[in-house]
Amino acid sequence: MTDEFDDALALANGPAGAAPAAARGAGRRGVARPRHAPAEGAAHVGPAWESARATAFRSVRPLPPRRLPLDLALGHTLAAPLTALTDLPAFDTSAMDGWAVAGPGPWRLTAGEPGLLAGAPAAGRLTDGEAVPIATGARVPEGATAVLRSERGTAADRRLRGPSPQPGADIRPRGQECRSGTELLPARTTLTPAALGLAAAAGYDQLAVRPKPRAEVLVLGDELLFRGLPHDGRIRDALGPMTGPWLAALGAQVMVTRRLGDDAEALHEAMSTSRADLIVTTGSTAAGPMDHLRAVLARLGAHLLISGVAVRPGHPMLLAELPGGTPLVGLPGNPLAAVSGLLTLAEPLLRALADRPAAAERHGRLTDEVRGHPEDTRLVPVELPEPDAARPLTYAGPAMLRGIAAAAALAVIPAGGARAQDRVRLLDLPAA
């Protein structure tokens, strides 16, 4: 069968997009090679969808660590645990504006406004019955037993009056958050803005990280136009503008998107000279007269790790290992089929390169029945109108983008289909 089956399903599923409800192992040393390559023109026979994802994840080693300054580390993965280089806070600090007081009141003020400010050196020791104005974040002087909030006290004639606070009130004690040497974040954590703030607070200027994998996109096909309206049998390239941003959303650093047409020599040169950690091609994964990808891979001596996957749309996708160890993901030329390839092969492969763990599985209940392929997994665009609900969308054929452009996730439909209220796995789509 071909992806024409998916087009037929998209039409048969009706206006709601579904029929109405009715009754890290081998690394770059290699993984198991397929025993057979399909005969030219034959249907692609490949691993099951989940098995293909596992193979992609196992097919590479994490990239070597490097050190980056904090302002360049966002989105990278920690190569080692983040441990505190100091106590947090590093000294007792005031949690509020007010007065540092020693013992019960009333108190004698030892200084006037502004008193102790954040960033100022330590002040002299307080003795019982003394107080000093203090700002939020300022270092609490020795001898202080609490901080009296500004709204609770009255200062006049160098005297402070107010209710005596409980010992330790509104003081952030040294080491309250952590002690020096405490593990703050484990290795393999993706660095978020908050994580970078924590690293800075803990004393870091640089971090050891797994770098974002560098990706190169090669767009294939002489039939593609790169501006204007379709004409004379040629169509607009939808994958070039989409693939790079999608890879970036999956954690890659996209170096370049190159448009090579159906030039086998240009493809050979691009693949043999690339400095990327991952090459992604669009189109040319089948066995048509102008599909040169497999022949060029054979000419380069690449190892074909996956030649087709039992998933619709996108079953002609492939995964190869170039002689230098660089992985190549071949996406089918139909847009939704290409998205299937990105989430089936590129997403787990990028996680492995960046040493990020596999994403936690998420599930939802279908609002409508979805017809399935008799043998293969099917990926169907869905919207999520409620936290546990997944509504299949129309325009879900392999050549269509309209459905996935409105979708929040892809539902993983097992062979044979799924009924309304069945729980299915959901693959989240990039939000931006």
From TrEMBL:
Pathway: Cofactor biosynthesis; molybdopterin biosynthesis
Region (Disordered): 16-46, 151-176
Catalytically driven reaction(s): adenylyl-molybdopterin + molybdate = Mo-molybdopterin + AMP + H(+)
Biological role stated in the UniProt entry: Catalyzes the insertion of molybdate into adenylated molybdopterin with the concomitant release of AMP.
Originating species: Streptomyces johnsoniae
Cofactor: Mg(2+)
Biased composition (Basic and acidic residues): 151-160
Domain MoaB/Mog: 216-352
Keywords: Magnesium, Metal-binding, Molybdenum, Molybdenum cofactor biosynthesis, Transferase
Low complexity bias (residue ranges): 16-25
Feature: compositional bias, Basic residues: 26-36
Protein name: Molybdopterin molybdenumtransferase
